[in-house]
Specification:
Helix content: 40-55%
Number of helices: 9
Order of helices and strands: HHHEHEEEEHEEEHHHH
Strand content: 15-25%
Structural class: alpha+beta
Shape: globular
Radius of gyration: 21 Å
Length: 309
Amino acid sequence: MNNRRRLSEGEREQRGRADRERVKEAASELLSSEGWARWVRARRTFHAYSASNCMLIALQCHQRGILPEHIAGFHTWIKLGRAVRKGEQAIRILGPIAVKQREKDSDGAEERRVFFKTTFVFDVSQTDPIPGVELAPLHPPRQPLTGDSHSHLLPPLVAFAESLGYGVAFRSIPGATGGWCDPRAQRIVVDADVPPNAQVRTLVHEITHALGVDYAKYSRAQADVIVDTTTLIVLSGVGLDVSGETIPYVAGWGESGALEAVSEFAQLIDGLARRIAHVIEGPSDGDPAGGRVSRRRVAAGRQPGTPSS
């Protein structure tokens, strides 16, 4: 029996304002190169989480001196063979809840509205193994860009580029260019002499340009940050090792409204990364923070977590 008191309309509004302030505070961290790098590292690590939740994770972990590795809810950690240590302070993110509306639509079906509430999660560093319980593997292997482990991703990436109206050619390119995207000719060229994993990297990079991130719509610095960051996130999501890659940053995001500008760029990068990842991985199937999680999926590299907001 649930005896929890239902919040009044005023209390819900007050809580909503507090949540929005927390997200705004977390987003303001993106205005520094260090804060931007923390968000990028969180976003490329926690693929199922939204851009806003990665901002919240990055800020709270930074404030506590935690380098986040794996995030999950209290009960999910138990299912993974670990227990949150007593006294550990939860990381607060926003989780979606669907509420049925009493009003019915024209077809007579009940409408459902999605709200967001504070959800509590913990990093693996805040947990200990449960004695006698088998631990689920949390560190999937990462493959180098110099290998051919991800050559199977080339056909779907080529098909996606073609669906955007771009032709893709593989040919020898002198020097270290790797490839390019020509929006006028609607053509992408990839160096045929580099390893397949490096070709995957080039294709993701150039496809991001083909999705509208060009030097006419954005400054060169902005476009480079958007494309390079999107590429890092996508490659990390499919299990390629980008740990040594430099995280790009733009010192000035706009002459005015810098916070709004950097937030919009983060959301744009998040959307581009999800669109490309959907093509080569399929739709994200992240778990609620306290919900079911498959050991097989964790072993395969999926992060137990909460996609939301």
